[in-house]
Amino acid sequence: MSSDTAFQHYTAAFAGLIGARHVLTSAEALAPYLSEERGLYPVKAPCVLRPGSTDEVAAVLACCNAHGIAVVPRGGNTGMVGGTAAPEGHVLLSLDRLAGAPQVDSVNATMTVDAGCTLQSAQEAAREAGLYLPLSLASEGSAQIGGVLATNAGGVNVLRYGNARDFCLGIEAALADGRVLSDLNALRKNNTGYDLRNLLIGSEGTLGVITRAVLRLHPMPRSRQTAFMGLASAGRALELYNRMRGLFGDQISAFEFISAPAWAMLAPHLHGRAAPLAEGHRAYVLMDLASVGDDPGLEERFQNSLAAAFDEGLIEDATLAANETQRAALWDLRERLPEAQKHAGADIKHDISVPVSALADFIAEGQAAAEAVLPGIVGAPFGHFGDGNLHFNFAPPPGMNRSDFRARAPEVTQAVVGVCLRHRGSFSAEHGIGRAKTGEMARYKNPVALDVMRAIKRALDPKGILNPGAVL
Ligand SMILES: Cc1cc2nc3c(=O)[nH]c(=O)nc-3n(C[C@H](O)[C@H](O)[C@H](O)COP(=O)(O)OP(=O)(O)OC[C@H]3O[C@@H](n4cnc5c(N)ncnc54)[C@H](O)[C@@H]3O)c2cc1C
Question: Which one-letter DSSP state was computed for residue 442?
Answer without folding.
Answer: H
